[in-house]
């Protein structure tokens, strides 16, 4: 194979990739012929491929690969240029810079992540074999098992209506209503529902009782801090978005059972026992958790530790029947996915994915895709219908303001967007959509198009999937609509016809008139309360 071609010396990654791509395509072509390549020959060829990749991995500095990829610097420049234009106020700019990019304490980790990115190139090339061989063997996987709803006698008390459950398959799913119909057990219900639908109970020998006890512990972990935003409703919402990507968009056709198990579980646990404050708050206040996790992805480490500690109870151990290899694999996937929900890795993830898309074509590492889908699901609120997005915004801003109150009390600088007296909600949301959410969904859409093209294009219509071929994705219209609404609110003329400026008093007016009188009324009410005595702050402000 590839006779006459000079083997790359491992010093130039582009040549290595081109060479590997050709080599692996030839192996795949041969596997598809009437006389496929023998196992011995295939082992020999793959051994050769691995040796070249290992050589390249140890010989070439990662930065060479990254700088030659080109796509990385483009994103940086694009975002940076727009972010530093006059149209973005300083507070929003600072919030985006401090929340979605790593600051100095994370530099060491960043360098590690870069190395991992390069390794992922190696894995991606190997992974493509797996994906392709799967497609050779399988027809379309069976879709969902028929609906089966859990019943909790004496607790949730009733089963969900068929109509409500059916909406689980729609992008317009309403977690607030779901909370009502599930008797205040949304995470428990959606967990049962999804594990049943994807047949995970049977495939991994999990009993209904074990799953229920596990879900209840996790749900209680979310309920305990009584955060307005980071609670069981948010976890339910993220689990739903992941389910949507898996089912309606068709990502499940690219994933094996363990990977589906891993991403659903990650969505369910990813913010458990959230403190309602940011990682930066923990670091700045030198909290116990910040000391425990050495300032690195403090909350994400805590969520993981909480969940895996629950799993140590025998009657809640949904991993009990996994083999040691399966346990090791799923733990790695879940840890990586939840750590990747640390918002400070946002721009880095975006750059890495963009580079993978432009460099590797359809050879994206599966775990990288899973991490990105979970992260996008985690920031998907602005891509939902306005009524839902408005409620989520109200909740997250209240959580931010509570943090600002605590920072004031502790004598710490108030974090961007956390000062309830000056923050402009429409501007913050517009900045979030334009610089964080929209670019992420664009890259995600591109990734899904590439990943799913060969898998779903023929069967998309048959299964009602959001296939490829130019169909508009469900999140495109709501994102555009929400962006337009916030933009309009940023420019709402005041009574005398002059556009709102960015002073504190005008922000309050803009917010109160256009954001939602009830919620903002509560925010105003809370403004003068003592933070220490403000239990009301932590009560969800929308019932
Ligand atoms: Zn989250």
TrEMBL record:
Superkingdom field: Eukaryota
Database matches in InterPro entries: HD/PDEase_dom, PDE1_N, PDEase, PDEase_catalytic_dom, PDEase_catalytic_dom_sf, PDEase_CS
Residues covered by region (Disordered): 489-543
Signal peptide region: none
Residue spans of biased composition, Polar residues class: 489-516
Cofactor field: a divalent metal cation
Metal-binding recorded as keyword: yes
GO MF, any single term: 3',5'-cyclic-nucleotide phosphodiesterase activity
Protein residues bound to AMP: 230-234, 271, 378, 429
Keyword Hydrolase: yes
Active site location: 230
Enzyme Commission designation: 3.1.4.-
Any one of the GO BP annotations: signal transduction
Residue positions binding Zn(2+) 1: 234, 270-271, 378
PANTHER family linked: CYCLIC NUCLEOTIDE PHOSPHODIESTERASE
Stated family: Belongs to the cyclic nucleotide phosphodiesterase family.
The protein, known as: Phosphodiesterase
Biological source species: Acropora cervicornis (Staghorn coral)
């Amino acid at each position: 194979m590839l006779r006459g071609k000079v083997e790359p010396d491992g010093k130039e990654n582009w040549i290595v990739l081109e060479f590997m791509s050709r080599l692996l395509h030839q192996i795949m072509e041969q596997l598809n012929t009437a006389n496929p390549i023998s196992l011995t020959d295939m082992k020999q060829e793959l051994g050769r491929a691995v040796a070249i990749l290992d050589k390249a991995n140890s010989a070439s500095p990662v930065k060479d690969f990254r700088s030659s990829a080109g796509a990385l610097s483009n994103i940086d420049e694009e975002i940076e240029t727009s972010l530093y234009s006059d149209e973005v106020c300083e507070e929003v700019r600072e919030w985006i810079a401090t929340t979605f990019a790593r600051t100095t304490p994370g530099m060491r980790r960043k360098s590690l992540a870069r190395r991992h990115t390069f390794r992922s190139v190696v894995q991606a090339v190997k992974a493509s074999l797996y994906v392709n061989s799967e497609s050779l063997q399988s027809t379309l996987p069976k879709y969902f098992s028929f609906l089966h709803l859990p019943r909790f006698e004496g607790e949730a008390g009733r089963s969900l209506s068929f109509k409500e459950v059916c909406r689980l398959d729609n992008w317009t799913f309403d977690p607030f209503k779901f909370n009502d119909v599930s008797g205040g057990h949304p995470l428990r219900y959606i967990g049962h529902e999804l594990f049943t639908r994807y047949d995970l109970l049977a495939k991994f020998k999990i009993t209904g009782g074990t799953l229920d006890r596990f879900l209840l512990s996790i749900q209680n972990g979310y309920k305990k801090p009584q955060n307005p935003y980071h609670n069981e409703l948010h976890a339910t919402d993220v689990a739903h978005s992941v389910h949507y990507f898996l089912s309606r968009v068709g990502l499940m056709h690219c994933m094996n059972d363990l990977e589906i198990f891993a991403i659903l579980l990650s969505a369910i646990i990813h913010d458990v026992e959230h403190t309602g404050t940011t990682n930066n708050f923990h670091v700045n206040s030198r909290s116990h958790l910040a000391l425990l996790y050495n300032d690195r992805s403090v909350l994400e480490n805590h969520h993981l530790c909480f969940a895996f500690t629950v799993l140590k109870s025998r009657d809640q151990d949904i991993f009990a029947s996994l083999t040691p290899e399966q346990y090791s694999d799923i733990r790695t996937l879940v840890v990586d996915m939840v750590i990747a929900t640390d918002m400070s890795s946002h721009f880095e993830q975006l750059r890495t994915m963009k580079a993978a898309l432009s460099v590797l074509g359809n050879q994206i590492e599966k775990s990288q895709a899973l991490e990105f889908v979970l992260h996008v699901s985690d920031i998907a609120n602005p891509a939902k219908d306005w009524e839902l997005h408005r409620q989520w915004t109200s909740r997250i801003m209240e959580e931010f303001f509570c943090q600002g109150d605590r920072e004031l009390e502790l004598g710490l600088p108030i974090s961007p967007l956390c000062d309830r007296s000056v923050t402009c909600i429409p501007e913050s949301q517009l900045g979030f959509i334009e610089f964080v959410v929209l670019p992420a969904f664009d890259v995600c859409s591109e990734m899904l198009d590439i990943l799913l093209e060969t898998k779903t294009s023929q069967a998309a219509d048959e299964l009602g999937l959001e296939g490829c071929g130019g169909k508009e994705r469900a999140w495109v219209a709501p994102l555009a609509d929400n962006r337009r609404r916030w933009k309009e609110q940023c420019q709402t003329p005041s009574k005398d016809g002059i556009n709102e400026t960015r002073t504190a008093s005008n922000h309050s007016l803009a917010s109160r008139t256009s954001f939602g009188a009830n919620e903002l009324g509560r925010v105003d009410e809370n403004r003068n309360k003592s933070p220490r005595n403000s239990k009301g702050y932590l009560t969800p402000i929308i019932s």
